[in-house]
Specification:
Helices cover 43% and strands 14% of the residues. By secondary structure, it is α/β, with parallel strands linked by helices. Helix 2 (30-50) runs parallel beside helix 3 (70-93) and helix 3 (70-93) packs parallel to helix 4 (109-122).
């Protein structure tokens, strides 16, 4: 579905919630819900391409998700690796630039390698900027940024009087991204879950009861139409 809307958000972030509950409702294991959730990812990317969205950031796996069962985590990691291998050429074909946000060091070596290959292959693309938050946490990213700033001050590379919002933004993993215009969360929960805490300071928030595997172009359009109705004052 291609929609023409004024004040269209340029950066949309999505907390993709509800895969497990979607599967449970159907008497299926969680991995079945995650596999169906991949189809919703494809639909969202397609929607973003058709509607000239500049940046799409998807929350795939948080720092806290390691607390899930070892079987679910292992299945998810192999699923991520499989999808990257399968789809990287298509991302390149459609001029999509892929970036993985988060701490990659904890991921298994084959997945780390595939991430490097996928990012390198798409690094020169000028179309949709697609970011996947994998082993990511907003607090953890801010903490790393603070350590970076403190180190620069200690080494004399930065004077504390020169520390501004832009300076701090430049040491975050999202330094190459514009602020988030619209944050969408599926699955019925009304919380942020440690996602892009710095970047969503003035974002419009949209929550829906729809589980992520059922999220489609109609759902996406409804979220953007809600965004269109809101007046963004940025504190004025």
């Amino acid at each position: 579905m291609n929609i023409k809307i004024r004040n269209f958000p340029s950066h949309i972030a999505i907390i993709m919630d509800g895969n497990g509950r979607w599967a449970k409702k159907r008497g299926k294991p969680k991995i079945f819900g995650h596999q169906e959730g991949i189809k919703a990812v494809y639909r969202s990317i397609q929607f973003a391409l058709f509607n000239n969205i500049e940046v799409l950031t998807l929350y795939a796996f948080s720092n806290e998700n390691w607390k899930r069962s070892s079987i679910e985590v292992r299945n998810l990691m192999f699923l991520f690796e499989k999808i990257l291998k399968k789809d990287v050429l298509n991302l390149n074909k459609y001029n999509i630039k892929l970036k993985i946000l988060g701490n990659k060091k904890k991921l298994h070596s084959a997945l780390q390698k595939q991430i490097k290959i996928s990012e390198l292959l798409t690094s020169k693309n000028k179309g949709l900027k697609l970011n996947i938050a994998l082993n990511y946490g907003g607090r953890q990213d801010i903490l790393r940024g603070v350590k970076n700033i403190v180190n620069k001050i200690f080494l004399g590379k930065l004077d504390i009087s020169d520390l501004q919002e832009d300076t701090f933004s430049s040491v975050l993993s999202t330094k190459f991204l514009p602020p988030v215009d619209l944050l969408i969360r599926t699955g019925g929960n009304i919380r942020i879950s440690n996602f892009l805490l710095w970047e969503i300071a003035y974002s419009e928030l949209y929550f829906t009861d729809i589980f992520w595997p059922d999220f489609n172009s109609r759902s996406f359009t409804k979220a953007i139409n809600q965004f269109k109705k809101r007046k963004r004052n940025f504190g004025k």
